[in-house]
UniProtKB/TrEMBL annotation:
InterPro entries: ARM-type_fold, INTS5, INTS5_C, INTS5_N. One of its GO terms (cellular component) is integrator complex. GO terms for biological process: snRNA 3'-end processing. Residues 14-222 form the Integrator complex subunit 5 N-terminal domain. PANTHER family: INTEGRATOR COMPLEX SUBUNIT 5. This is Integrator complex subunit 5. The lineage of its organism: Eukaryota, Metazoa, Ecdysozoa, Arthropoda, Hexapoda. Residues 234-914 form the Integrator complex subunit 5 C-terminal domain. Pfam families: INTS5_C (PF14838), INTS5_N (PF14837).
Length: 926
C-alpha cells in the first residue's frame, strides 16, 4: 500500500529550479542527497509531463544499481555463506518511490496506471534478463527459487507491488492493455520474466488466465500458420504463463479453456468468426506443447463433447487445415494428443466409435474421418508397443484404469465396436494379462451370438500368450468365468452354451488358434470345478456342461488323473438320472446317450472309474430317490398305530401247529408291520409303465456302456462286477452267499433259520424293485455271470416253494396267484436265459401257468432245486467257442432222469393242454 508522500505542489517559478536540480543530479555534476534527489524527481514526474521519461529513466538507473548490489551480495553469500547486507539510503529512496508512485495510481488510475505499469514491466524484464545469468545454483533451480530470489530483493519487490497496484486498477477497464503488456514483455524476456508472470497471475488468476487465452487466440488467429505452428513466440508465452499458474490454479485454467471452447461453438459476429474458427486449432496447439494443458482439456472440454457437437465441429474442420498444413497433419496431431491423454481415454474412444458408427445426425464425412482417426490411433499404439515393449502410453494406462467401460463394447451388435474393444484389450494385455483374461472371461459368460464368440477367439489370438502357452491362457479364462458365473448379466446356462459352441468349432478345426485345442485343455484343467458344477446345476445348464466334457474328452488330449475321473463318473451318473426326469423325450434320449458315451470312454480308460460308476448306478437306481423312475414301489410313511398285543409267534400258533418248521405252509411270512398286515405301497405317484420301461431300457444301455471293453464288446469281468454288486446290495447277509445250493436236510436243520430272514429280504427286493429283474436279465444274457447271483436265485426259489406250498386255501385269489405266477415265470426264464437249467428243464417257465400249486411245488423242488443242488451254478460249466462266445453245450449237460421224470409225468397228467410241448421235449422218433 502507498505510504504518505512528502511531495507537495510547488509554485510555477520553483519548477524551473527543480528541473535544474534534477538535471545536475542526474548528470552527477553536483553532489546531492539521494533521498532528496528522488523526491525532486518525483515532484517533476507529477508536475512536469515533459520530464516523465527522464525521471523514469533515472529511476531505472536507481533500481538497476540496487539490484546490482543485491546480486553481488547474493553471490558473496553463496561463496561465504553470509547474509546480504542492507543499504539504508537505497532502502529509504526505493520506499519513497514506491509510496509516491502507488499514490499516483490510486488517485488517478486512468492517467498513471498505464504509464507506470508499462515502465515497471519493461524494467522488470530488463533486470530479470540482465541479472538472472549472474545468479548461481540456488537461483537457477526453478521458478520457485527465482521467485524467492527476486522477491527477497527490495527493488524488484517494489516494482512487482507497483505493477500489481496498476493491474488492480486497470483490470476491469483496460484488461486487454494490461495482458498485452504482460505478454509482450514475457515474449521479449522469456524465460527470465516468468517469475513476474507467475506472481501477477497468482494475484489475478481467473482474469489473467482468461485474458492470456484471449490474447493468445487473437494473435494465433491473425498470425499463426503451418510453418510457425507450436513455435509461435506468443503461443509459447501463453503456454509458459498457464503452465506456471497450473500448480495452484488448475481449476481456473480448466474452466477458462472450457468457456473458450463453448464460446467458439456459439454463433457470433462476423468480426469474431476467424477467432471462433481458430479456437479448436489453438487449443490443439496449446495441448501439443503442454501436458498440463492437455490434462485440463481432457478433464474439462472433453467431458462436454457429444456426437452432436462432433458433427458441428465437422463443419469447421476443413478450415483448420490452414493452421497445420494438411488434413493428414491435423489427424496426426489429434492422434498424438489422444495418445498423451492421462484422463478421459475411454471418453475419446466412445466419441470416436459413436461418430464412426454413423449414429443419427452424424454426416458421412465425419463418420469416415472418425473411422480413420480411430484406426490410426490403434495402429500407433500397436507400433509403439512393438518397437518398445516397455513403452509408457498414457492413453493405454488411462483405458486400463477404466477397462470396465470398454468391456461392454465386446457385447455390442456393431462389429466395429466389438473389434475395437478386442484390439484395445489385447494391447492392454501385453502388459496386464489379468485385464485380458478378465475381459475374455466376461465375454465368455455373456456372449449371446456367434459374432461375440468370434470376438473371443480373436481376443485369444491377439493376446500376448501364444502357441502352447496359449492353452494355459484359456484355462485361466474359463476358471475365472466359472468363478464369476451367477453375477449380474451372466448365467451358467449361457456360459456353457458358449463353451460347447467353441468346442464344436475347435473340433471342426475352425481357425488356427483353435487347432491347438485350447478350449478342451481349459475344460480338462478345470475339471474339478466342472464336475462340481455338473453335480449342482439342473436343466439346460447340466446338458451343456455334460456336452462340453464329452467334446473335451473326445480328442487326443491326455486324460485327467484318477481322482478327477472318479469325481467325473459320479457326476455323470447323477446327470443321467437328471435326464430321465426331463419331460422332453428328446432331451432324455440325448442325455442318456451322452452319459453312455462319457462313462464308456471313462471306464475303458480307468478300471477304478468303472467300478465306481457301476456301484453308483446300481445304488442310486435301486435304493435312492431315483428308484421310482424304474417302477419301485413307494412305501407310505410308517404307521403310527401299533398293536403291542399282536406278535408273529401268536399269529403262527393260531394256525393250529405247536411246532413251526421253516418253509412249512403253516408259517405266515409277514412283509409288513405285525398286527397291521403287509405294508401298503403308494401307487398314486407311480410312473406309467411306458415311462418305466423306457427308463429301465436306458439304464441297461448305460450299464452295457460302462461294461464295454476297448474293442467294443462287453467285458465279462465288468459284468461279473455287476453280478457281485447285485449280491452285495440285495443280500443283507454275508453268510451262505456261496454258489452251492444246500441239501434238503439242510433246509430242515435249525441252521436254515440263519437264511430265512435273508431270503425274505431278497424276495421283497425283487417284488418292490422291478428293475432287479431287468438287471438279472442283463447278467443272465452275459453268461456265465449269472452264476455269481446264485444266492439271489436260491432265495427267490425258497420263498416260491413256501408260497406255492401254502397257497391252497387262497388259490382262487387271482391277484395273489398272478403275482406268484409272474415271479415264478421270471425266475425260470432267468435260469433258462443264463443256461443254469439245460433242456428240457429250460422249458419249465412255459408250463407253470397251467399247473396246480402242488405240481408247481414238485417242479421247483425236483427239477430246479435238486438239479442246481447237484449241479452247482459255476462258471466252470461254461466254455468258449471259436467265436469267443461263452455258452453251455446242451449235448453235454442233458439232465439225468431223476431231474426230468417229475416234469415228464406232470406233462402227461396235463397232456390235453401240454401235449404239443410234451411231443417236442420227450418224443423220441422211431
Amino acid at each position: 500500500m502507498a505510504g504518505t508522500s512528502v511531495i507537495k505542489n510547488m509554485p510555477s517559478h520553483d519548477l524551473l529550479s527543480e528541473l535544474r536540480t534534477f538535471v545536475s543530479g542526474a548528470t552527477r555534476s553536483m553532489k546531492t542527497n539521494p533521498l532528496e534527489f528522488a523526491r525532486t524527481a518525483l515532484s517533476l514526474l507529477k508536475t512536469l509531463p515533459a520530464a516523465r521519461d527522464a525521471v523514469l529513466e533515472y529511476f531505472c538507473t536507481l533500481f538497476d544499481s540496487a539490484v546490482d548490489k543485491y546480486i553481488t551480495d547474493v553471490q558473496m553469500m553463496v561463496s561465504d555463506s553470509s547474509q546480504p547486507g542492507a543499504v539504508s539510503y537505497e532502502e529509504a529512496t526505493i520506499t519513497e518511490i514506491h509510496n509516491v508512485l502507488c499514490s499516483f495510481v490510486s488517485l488517478n488510475p486512468e492517467a498513471w496506471a498505464p504509464i507506470i505499469s508499462t515502465w515497471s514491466l519493461e524494467l522488470l524484464g530488463e533486470l530479470s534478463s540482465r541479472y538472472t545469468g549472474m545468479a548461481r545454483a540456488p537461483m537457477a533451480a526453478g521458478l520457485n527459487e527465482s521467485l524467492q530470489l527476486w522477491m527477497s530483493c527490495r527493488a524488484t519487490r517494489t516494482l512487482i507491488d507497483i505493477t500489481t497496484q496498476c493491474f488492480s486498477c486497470l483490470m476491469h477497464s483496460d484488461t486487454d492493455s494490461c495482458i498485452n503488456a504482460l505478454l509482450d514483455t514475457s515474449v521479449a524476456h522469456s524465460p527470465n520474466f516468468d517469475w513476474v508472470v507467475a506472481h501477477v497471475g497468482g494475484c489475478f488468476p481467473h482474469t489473467v488466465i482468461t485474458k492470456v487465452l484471449s490474447c493468445g487466440l487473437k494473435d494465433f488467429s491473425q498470425h499463426a500458420s503451418a510453418e510457425q505452428g507450436a513455435k509461435s513466440p506468443k503461443l509459447i508465452s501463453v503456454v509458459g504463463i498457464l503452465g506456471h499458474l497450473a500448480g495452484s490454479h488448475f481449476v481456473d485454467i480448466r474452466t477458462a479453456l472450457l468457456e473458450l471452447f463453448k464460446w467458439s461453438m456459439e454463433p457470433g459476429d462476423v468480426e469474431e468468426a476467424d477467432q471462433r474458427k481458430a479456437t479448436v486449432p489453438f487449443l490443439f496447439q496449446l495441448a501439443s506443447v503442454s501436458s498440463t494443458l492437455l490434462r485440463a482439456l481432457t478433464t474439462g472440454v472433453l467431458q462436454t463433447l457429444d456426437v452432436t457437437m462432433l458433427a458441428q465441429l465437422g463443419t469447421q474442420a476443413p478450415g483448420w487445415c490452414e493452421y497445420f498444413g494438411s488434413a493428414q497433419a491435423l489427424e496426426g496431431l489429434v492422434v498424438h494428443l489422444a495418445l498423451g491423454c492421462e484422463e478421459g481415454g475411454t471418453r475419446i474412444l466412445k466419441l470416436l466409435l459413436s461418430a464412426a458408427t454413423l449414429e443419427e445426425g452424424v454426416p458421412q464425412d465425419v463418420c469416415t474421418t472418425a473411422r480413420r482417426i480411430l484406426e490410426l490411433l490403434l495402429q500407433e499404439v500397436d507400433q509403439q508397443l512393438r518397437c518398445t515393449l516397455s513403452a509408457n502410453i498414457a492413453l493405454l494406462g488411462c483405458i486400463q484404469q477404466e477397462v470396465s467401460v470398454i468391456q461392454p463394447l465386446l457385447l455390442e451388435k456393431d462389429n466395429l465396436q466389438v473389434l475395437t474393444a478386442v484390439r484395445l484389450i489385447a494391447l492392454i494385455g501385453n502388459e496386464s494379462p489379468a485385464v485380458l483374461i478378465g475381459s475374455a472371461a466376461q465375454l465368455l459368460q455373456k456372449a449371446s451370438s456367434e459374432d461375440h464368440l468370434v470376438a473371443l477367439v480373436r481376443l485369444i489370438a491377439a493376446g500376448p500368450i501364444v502357441n502352447q502357452v496359449q492353452n494355459i491362457y484359456m484355462v485361466h479364462v474359463l476358471e475365472q468365468a466359472i468363478r464369476e458365473t451367477g453375477g449380474p448379466g451372466s448365467s451358467p446356462e449361457n456360459l456353457w452354451k458358449n463353451v460347447v459352441m467353441l468346442l464344436r468349432w475347435e473340433r471342426a478345426g475352425a481357425g488356427k488358434v483353435l487347432r491347438g485345442r485350447p478350449v478342451s485343455r481349459a475344460v480338462l484343467d478345470n475339471l474339478d470345478e466342472v464336475t462340481n458344477l455338473l453335480g449342482t446345476v439342473s436343466g439346460t445348464c447340466a446338458h451343456s456342461v455334460a456336452t462340453a466334457v464329452d467334446l473335451a474328452l473326445n480328442g487326443a488330449m491326455p486324460f485327467p488323473n484318477t481322482q478327477l475321473l472318479l469325481m467325473l463318473s459320479k457326476a455323470v451318473v447323477g446327470y443321467f438320472f437328471l435326464c430321465l426326469q426331463d419331460s422332453d423325450v428328446t432331451v432324455r434320449l440325448r442325455g442318456a446317450r451322452l452319459c453312455c458315451r462319457l462313462l464308456g470312454r471313462l471306464s475303458v480308460h480307468s478300471s477304478p472309474t468303472r467300478a465306481l460308476a457301476l456301484r453308483e448306478i446300481l445304488e442310486k437306481s435301486l435304493f435312492h430317490s431315483h428308484s421310482h423312475l424304474f417302477g419301485a414301489k413307494i412305501t407310505k410313511s410308517p404307521v403310527t398305530k401299533t398293536n403291542q398285543d399282536t406278535s408273529l409267534l401268536h399269529d403262527n400258533q393260531r394256525q393250529g401247529s405247536s411246532t413251526m418248521l421253516a418253509q412249512r405252509h403253516s408259517s405266515v411270512f409277514h412283509a409288513g408291520v405285525i398286527g397291521d398286515g403287509p405294508r401298503v405301497h403308494n401307487q398314486s405317484d407311480a410312473l406309467s409303465s411306458d415311462i418305466v420301461a423306457h427308463n429301465s431300457h436306458q439304464l441297461i444301455n448305460l450299464l452295457k456302456a460302462v461294461c464295454t471293453n476297448n474293442i467294443g464288446g462287453v467285458s465279462l469281468d465288468a459284468m461279473t462286477m455287476v453280478s457281485l454288486l447285485l449280491v452285495e446290495l440285495i443280500s443283507p447277509d454275508v453268510m451262505y452267499n456261496g454258489l452251492p445250493w444246500p441239501e434238503e436236510e439242510f433246509c430242515k436243520a435249525r441252521f436254515y433259520y440263519v437264511t430265512i430272514e435273508r431270503d425274505l429280504h431278497v424276495r421283497r427286493r425283487f417284488d418292490d424293485l422291478p428293475l432287479v429283474w431287468e438287471l438279472m436279465s442283463l447278467v443272465a444274457t452275459n453268461r456265465p455271470t449269472l452264476c455269481y447271483c446264485s444266492v439271489l436265485l436260491r432265495a427267490v426259489t425258497a420263498t416260491l416253494l413256501a408260497q406255492w406250498g401254502s397257497s391252497g386255501h387262497h388259490w382262487q385269489q387271482s391277484t395273489h396267484r398272478a403275482k406268484l405266477l409272474y415271479t415264478t415265470e421270471k425266475l425260470l426264464q432267468l435260469l433258462s436265459l443264463g443256461q443254469l437249467l439245460p433242456p428240457p428243464l429250460s422249458s419249465l417257465g412255459d408250463v407253470v401257468g397251467k399247473l396246480s400249486p402242488h405240481e408247481v411245488v414238485q417242479l421247483l423242488r425236483d427239477c430246479v432245486w435238486n438239479y442246481l443242488r447237484d449241479h452247482v451254478p459255476s462258471p466252470a460249466l461254461f466254455g468258449r467257442d471259436d467265436l469267443g462266445v461263452v455258452w453251455r453245450d446242451p449235448s453235454q449237460a442233458w439232465p439225468g432222469p431223476q431231474y426230468i421224470e417229475t416234469f415228464r409225468l406232470i406233462l402227461q397228467t396235463n397232456i390235453e393242454q401240454l401235449g404239443a410241448l410234451y411231443s417236442q421235449l420227450f418224443f423220441a422218433p422211431t
